[in-house]
Amino acid sequence: MFDAELLSILLPALVAGLLVLSTHVLLGQQVLKRGIIFIDLAIAQVAALGAIVSHMDHSVEDIPFVHMWMPALFALAGAGVIAWMAKRLTGELEAMIGCFYVLSAVAAMLLLANDPHGAELLKQLMSGQILWVSWSQLVLPAVVSAVILALITFRPKLLDGASFYFLFAIVITLSVELVGVYLVFSTLILPALALNKYTGKSKLAWAYVVGIIGYIAGLLLSATYDLPSGAAIVATLAVSALMFRQLIKFRSTTA
Length: 255
Description:
The longest helix is centred in the N-terminal third of the chain and has 31 residues, at 4-34. The chain has helices at residues 4-34, 39-56, 58-61, 66-88, 93-111, 118-127, 139-154, 163-179, 181-194, 203-225, 229-254. The chain has eleven helices and no strands. The termini are far apart. By secondary structure, it is mainly α. Helix content is 79%, strand content 0%.
């Protein structure tokens, strides 16, 4: 069914998905716990805005690794703003984060309005191009993901304070580059939602299972029927999450 050439494309894409899942499933549960669902969309959109700025400013476009550090700077700045709002606008935080996302999205559209390649760049940042990820692109995300997971493992309190927002910004910046804004949001929220009502000790492990099934099924669906990979994975993640929610509901009613 799959020849060597197709497998050489699917394997890096799958590893990219697993790297994104490794941090996003954990952070997604924290996002759901805090009730700040739009933070991932907002930070991802701000990181995308940084990528657009680096693309448009020809004086910085050729600076080494500008496509990484410029979105990171924007994302960290956005995280700082949200951390500030979290202390002062508790009752309105989710609404303010939603506004932050919309303003970032509008800024991106305005910046690209007169760019002949703007529509293609915006589509790439939103939907991602996970099927075209190369092994070399995975080295930095793998190292950063390992470091962040180690930090959270040995210092779990980092997830409780303002440092959460800055860890989140770093993770999101790398993920947007790999898989796009829509898949970043789906990877954070759907596995967390799937296990939100589950109270067992293996909650986190099952959330990873939801994500892995979604990514594998989405990549296979995309390769088999020549569908956009990002959209296919979002759809299969949603189906995987829904199936697990229904299974948990069924088990609770029959217990």
